[in-house]
Fold each of these.
Amino acid sequence: MNGASGARSYSGPVVLGLTGGIGMGKTWAAMAFRYFGVPVFDSDKAVHKLLGVDGGAVGAVLKKFPDVGINTKTKPAIDRNKLGNIVFNDVKKLRELESILHPLVEKMQKDFIAHHARRRTSLLVLDIPLLFETGGETKTDFVVCVYAPKFVQRPRVLVRPGMNDARLDAIESNQLSPELKCQMADFVISTRAGRGESLRQVKEMIKVMNKIPARAWGPHWGK
């Protein structure tokens, strides 16, 4: 199954929003879409690039948070762990950081979509952890939420370097509940049942999406 070819006449790419709470298996779901040939924009990787060496957000972030810089042999970068420890415990500071990052990430998303529209790609995925929290669902045709029960999700997260119960709780306190995200989404992928079942779910979604005209492309991302 190839995300670049579909039965419908071309009206721009169908934009599928992929979201889910931390540790729900969203990275795996994104890999599944890529496996079937669907281009995926990874918002987390975009943020990492913006905060990395010579990243587009480094200067603005250092003005707001001067203690989170990393001294490198080349150009400055941001220590994401230090930054996270600051903003996840202070809603005001988190919003200040988001006001810097979100417009830059959205510009990268628009460039990504425009590139694939020129190639007449039929289906795209925007992997956005805070899709609903930022109103991003209004710029997509459909939303897929990835879900796993807490007894599966929490152990996945706590084995990550630098993660602990307090930090996980702080991160989740700034997000909608996984259950509410699933209610708001058009599709839900369960990552509890195993990768084979997740692949089957993704394959079926792509079949459906390739038959539906794009709606979000024109008013939100196109000309």
Note: Confidence is low (pLDDT under 50) at residues 1-6.
Amino acid sequence: MAQWLADRLVGCYAEDRSGAKAAPVQGGREAGLSVLRGFSVVGYATRRNFVPGDLTTVSRLSPYLRHGMLGLAEVAEAVRAEVGRTADAVKFWAELGWRVFWRGLFARLGRSVYSDLEPAKVPLGSGTMPPEVERGETGLVCMDETVRELVATGYIHYHARMWFASYLVHHRKVSWREGERFFYRHLLDGDPASNALSWQWVASTFSSKPYFFNRENVEKYTAGRWCARCQARCPFDGSYSALETRLFGGKL
């Protein structure tokens, strides 16, 4: 059914949807409730930053929240029923709170979220999406694995989203709008508000400074498994102060 719909919706999108495939995530409320019942918030506060593997604790509830299969209040209540008001619960509720914030902004700003909300704090580029990045063929394992997972599954861990956005905007000087459209085209949980405003947050057009990262950060939160396989010259290698100078010309 999903492929049948995709074939018949060709031309209804700004992006080409002719190659759309059935989503690997089961949809519907019952599926969402099953994922919610299988999620435990225990350990969330300390392990949520780890990009998948045995160390991570993420809910995988975002597609169901995005499409209204689950409500924010019922998910928050399920967490409260499991553990009460613990540090893990509070951190998880904070993430739900960001969804409320993004939605509220979108209700107020509408399509203005696709324009810079503030002046950029650093020089930004206006480049288009490099073909090798979109194909997952940069030679940088962390970036290529992220793209391949995104295209294949419609989902990537939030930390990998931040790394990829920073790489595209600050290292490759691609317009944040190009990256935002690329994500929205593939993400099953792609929400207009959180997607656009998160890209602006990385770019510094909706934050006090740009978001960037270094190799040590990637190694820490992936248990080194991407870096161990990477043969490319790493553009993320170095201290934060060195990267500030390299990317932005000096201390922010």
Note: The two ends are 51 Å apart (CA to CA).
Amino acid sequence: MNPIFAAALEIQKVCDARKFPFCFIGGVAVQRWGEPRLTADVDLTLLTGFGAEAPYIDALLTEFRGRLPDTREFALVNRTLLLWSSARVALDVSLGAMPFEEHTIERASDFTIGAAQVIRTCSAEDLIVHKTFAGRDKDWLDIRGIVKRRGDALNRELIWTELAPLLELAGDDGQSQRLRAILS
């Protein structure tokens, strides 16, 4: 099995056993919705809320090794828990608390990756929002691939409803204009 998918299944099993609300985002979700590409890590959002992150962090650190000497403290400050899977695949756990992250997890659905194996990924629309907000060159390539593959099936109203407040909060640096060009 693909080591990235194996790592995703490994952390999903832990999150499911603990009934942690989560979904995969990033390159794993791109495999489902966009033009497949190589990815070196597994990105997921884990809904912790604000102020309740420590129990989630501590639980995951009992199952996975941290990638930093101060992994726990880094996660509490930066809202990102950096772990290793058992096969040393990087696991980037975003500690979610914003309404968009909650909605993303609510809309997540299963993606079949093998015989009787599924992982829970965000929707194509939510992936576009995540990628637009991040705004790196590879994110724009991923967005183009998602739009190419999903086309008219995308709920553009949902994308803009979720993206607008995030860009307003961060200060829209031309991301909305760039996304409009890709979506048209």
Note: The chain is about 55% helix and 20% strand.
Amino acid sequence: MDYHDRRFLQTFTIFIALLALLAVGFLFLASQLASRSGDENFKRSKIAEERAYARLEPVGVVRLQGTASGTSPVAARAAQAPARTLAALTTPQAVHHLMVGQGCFACHAIDSKIVGPAYAWVAYHYRAQVKRAVLTLAHKIISGGTGYWNPWTGGIAMPAHPTLTLAQAEAMARWVLARHPLAPPKP
């Protein structure tokens, strides 16, 4: 191999390495921008948000079964929510703040998968059974676990949030279900 061939290979190798580094940089930048702007993609007007919450109002009282007494320990503790908890969760912003405090956005985004499914995918999945879904999702939030989303998450379990009251979890479920539904991609 002569001097010119060796010089060409060195230059070409450096050029390819720089292109690869540039591509990795752009991918990192794109992921950062996507995670920061996800919530703004689905902002709604105040009227639309209020209509969505009115549509998702709970109907009646629901009790869980699971123990000899007829009520699971989680449901019994969650049913004892103080009245001020309900009053504090009347606005979407208050619920969003609660979700941020619980770390929900570390694993979920509005319209894309992080670890768990996107909130818009969950809204799509439960779009035909919204009233029943509020309670289902509330108990999943409190108890954690795996289930329907395993093909997308690889079976990674959602952690339990046992310190939440049932009222708080239901408010969070209503917030999720009020997102603009988006069909998930094929797993």
Note: The chain has two domains: 1-37, 45-177.
